[in-house]
Design goal:
By secondary structure, this protein is mostly helical. InterPro entries: YuzK.
């Protein structure tokens, strides 16, 4: 998890755990990525059906 967090967001888990601001930034970014993936998935499903 440490490597993945650092690679994806540029911070280590200890820093993520310590800083509320950075944690919120990471979670907002994750939410945006999730919504984008849902949009892509729905688009692909529409094209297939």
């Amino acid at each position: 998890m440490e490597k993945a967090l650092h690679k994806a967001h540029g911070i280590g888990f200890a820093e993520y755990e310590r800083s509320l601001t950075k944690r919120i930034d990471v979670e907002v970014e994750r939410q945006k990525e999730y919504v984008k993936s849902l949009e892509i998935s729905h688009e692909m499903q529409r094209k297939i059906l």
